[in-house]
Structure formats: structure tokens, C-alpha cells
Amino acid sequence: MEISSHQFHLLQQLNEQRRQDLFCDCNILVEGKVFKAHRNVLFASSGYFKMLLSQSSKETSQSTTATFQAFSPDTFTVILDFVYSGKLSLTGQNVIEVMSAASYLQMTDVISVCKTFIKSSLDISEKEKDRYFSLSDKDVSSNGVERSCVYSGGWRAESSPPHPHSSPDPGTCMMGGNAWSNFNYYPTSQRNAQQQLSKHEQRQDSIKKSRHLGLQQPSDIPHYKSSKLEDRAAEPAGHAAPAEEQVHIDAEVEAPHVGFQFGQGAEVMPRDDLARMRFKCPFCSHVVKRKADLKRHLRCHTGERPYPCEACGKRFSRLDHLSSHFRTIHQACKPICRKCKRHVTELTGQVVQEGTRRYRLCNECLAEAGIDSIRIDLEAEAPLEFPQDGDKDSRWHYGEDNKSDVEIVEDGSSDLVIQQVDDSEDEAEEKEVKPNIR
DNA sequence: CTGGGGAAGGGGCCC
DNA sequence: TGGGCCCCTTCCCCA
């Protein structure tokens, strides 16, 4: 016989112990704030902690301390509350930070929920758009209302205390019709999107700090850089956007909220303009004409990087960036000597390979570098080959079944390989190359 | 410290 | 709708 409430009570007890600092054997330091928790709970909830604690547990039986700079204490509060309650308090403001923290901590469930949250924001906004068009220029009473969600698992406590990050307003609506239909959804009062962006930037700073301190970051941590996008949001009056867009954005800044916006607010856009500038980013003031462009844009908020370079492991948010990276870094497509910047041909230069990195050097620079008298070993190495269309599962490999007859010179050093340039071959190869492997 | 160049990344837009 | 190209800005490294 199974008592369904057991799991819930067990976790509730653990959460109570955490609050009372009972049996806590792990300290987590986030930007100076100390969180206490139980190793076994963290171990069971996060791939990051699993790795960390499995190492430290071998070394010591004393309490473990983990330090994080990559996210804020508020964000970690949301994560830790989820770990101990199964409830994830998401808002339009914190979803990006929570998602990136979850990515850092390797909590795939949380990442999925965040993605769903973002997606549902868009879906709901899409409906609002439809409603707007059907209502024409009528004032939309829900204007400016941002939503937040409390996602929780199947055995959610009915008497759960309100979370500091959300102000639940129960009974307003339920999400249904999707995989998350079990989750309750509470709209709440909005906060300014500007706060989201400034936090976003804060977090970015902390990531930078971490990087400069040489702290290890998982490879799929979203990397937010200070971009014109954020500059636009930070200085809505300052950026050099087209006048049409400017008008729209100025209107948005008055009442930013999650979701698409379609001329709501004090300044109602003429419908012509709405048709031209239709899709509003829920997380910044950016507006695009096409849904596909918005989808692409959202990756800079979510940190999603679905296109890995299989040569070096670096991940990209866009296929064309991956292609560009691949051509530049691993294919040595530019017919320019890396050292003297002169144009090189197959006669006047060669491809140099350092690990997975390839570039070209002219014969003079090769000679200068003293790598013109290296033994030739055709069998030892071969150029990078790439997965072809229809062979997406294949992994990159070095020269098995190499079709080109490029001459290869291998350096005596670890992994420096010189190849004779054959532009025609490269160009032919380039057309076939599809570095995207999903 | 600074300027130049390369690489990355974001947006617009065409196919 | 996705892929891809072009253009631009930002960041980082190095001389």
C-alpha cells in the first residue's frame, strides 16, 4: 500500500529542517549570502551538486561550502525553494535568471519549466494580439499587467506559504492543454521590465567576474553580453532606431509587460504600423516584424544555444553563426596569410592546423616561422572532414576516407599540421559542408 | 594604456 | 518557417 502524501510530508519535513538549520551539512555562498541546505537533497536535485558533492564527500565528512557568483541570492532562493518544495516561483522578471541558474546547476526540469513559461508567455500574448485586433482600438483593460507563475508538482501543498517572489492571486486562471496542465498559474502585479534588464545586466556582470576569476562555468551557461539590445532598453530615448520603431518603443516603455504588445497604452499605433512591426519581445523593448525573428531574438534572453560546433564544442544560438565560426576557425576559408595578411593561393601559401583550428600562412611566413622543413607524413594526418547532408549523425573525424589529395606536413610539435592550399577543393568542400549537428 | 584586428553575436531581410 | 547572407556593434586579445 502506498501513501501518496508521504513524499510530500518527507520533503516538507526536510524543508522545515532547512529553515531551522537542523542537520544542514552544506553551505552555499551566493554573492555573500549564505544558504544552508542538506547535501543529500542538493545531490538528488542538481547535476552540478551531484558532481561537486560526490567529489567532496570522498574527501571529508565535514560540511561542504559552495560559492556562486553567476547568479543572485534571489535567484538561488527560487531554486532552493523549488528543491525543497517542488514549487518554482517564476515571474517575467526572474525567469531568465532562474533558467540560467538552473542551467548552471544542471537542473533540467527547471530549465524545461522556464522554457515552457517563456513559451506560454508568447502564446498568451499571441491571443492578446488576436483579441486586440478583434477589439480594434478599444482600450484593453489588461494592459500593463504582467504575470508570474508558481509551478508546482502533482502533490503541491494546498497550504503552501506565499513565495517572496510572487504574489499569488489564486483562482484567476489555470494553464491547460499542454504538458504543464498540472501546474497552477497565478497572475500577479507587474514590476517594471527595466528591473528585469538591470538584473539581467547585474547577472551578466557577475558572470564576467566569475570568468575573470577563472571560475568554472558549464559550457551551456547563457552568456549575456552588453549589446545594443540592452542599450536600447536602458536608453530608450537614445538609440538610433527608425522613427517608426521609436514611437512604438517609447509607448512600450510606459507600461512594459511580458508578452507581445500591439499598440496598447497611451499612444495607439496606427494599424499599418502594427502590421509592419508586430512582434514585441516579452523581455525587452525589442520589436520585430516576423515571428521567426522574435524566436531567434529570444535565444539571446534564454541563453539557448542549440547549435554546437563539433570540432571545438563551442555552442551557438544560431546556425549561421556556427557556420561562420566553422568556416573561420576550422576551415581556414579566408585566403589570407594570418601573419602578414597577404592574399595567398595554393601556390603561395599553406593551411596550418593547430588542434582543430586552421589558418593560412604564406610560404614566406611559414619559412620565417621555421616550419618549412618539417617531415611530410601523408598518412599521419588529414584535414577536417564534416558531416554531409543526410549524414547528420556522423561525427567529425580527421581524414578517414579522405578524398582530397592535399599534401600534409606535420609539425614535430604536438598538433601543428601544414597542408598545401587547394582553394578549388576547399570551395567545393565548402558548398557541401553542413556544420550543423543537432 | 591604447589602438587594431579577429571573433562572436544581434538584427534585417531575402530566398 | 528555416537557412543563409550581409551589416553592424561589442568584446577580447595582442602588439
Topology readout:
Elements: H1 5-19, E1 26-30, E2 33-37, H2 39-45, H3 47-59, E3 64-68, H4 73-85, E4 87-91, H5 95-105, H6 108-135, E5 148-152, E6 173-174, E7 184-185, H7 193-212, H8 228-234, H9 243-254, H10 271-276, E8 279-280, E9 287-288, H11 291-302, E10 307-308, E11 315-316, H12 319-330, E12 349-354, E13 357-362, H13 363-368, E14 384-385, E15 397-398, E16 408-410, E17 416-420, H14 423-432
Parallel strand pairs: 1-3
Antiparallel strand pairs: 1-2, 4-5, 6-7, 8-9, 10-11, 12-13, 12-17, 14-15, 16-17
Helix pairs in contact: 2-3, 4-5, 5-6
The chain binds a DNA duplex (15 and 15 nucleotides) through α8, α11 and α12.
Q: In brief, what are we looking at here?
A:
This protein is an alpha+beta fold and 438 residues long. 39% of the residues lie in helices and 14% in strands.
